Amino acid sequence: MISSDPYVLYLWQAMKEPDWPQFKAAMQHKIEDHQNNGYWEMVLYSAIPKHTPILPTVWSMKRKQHITTREVYKWKAGLTIDGSKQK
What we know:
The protein has helices spanning 11-14, 20-36, and strands at 8-10, 57-65, 72-81. With 87 residues, it is an alpha+beta fold. The protein is elongated.
């Protein structure tokens, strides 16, 4: 799966970049935000009841840049449901 937006990277692409630590920190921040806001909580896979559907997720990463200097000032991570699995 390749993004149509040239500025968006998927997890496997971001892991190959030299600024991977910044993307990893952005992912951790996103997970903490979801937990703190009560959107969801992390559970062990073994604690999920049998036959419970699990929706696959996709990480997308983006570098926010200043318009004039193109200097990166923020690394963002987004976690979404894999669109190909939605009904």
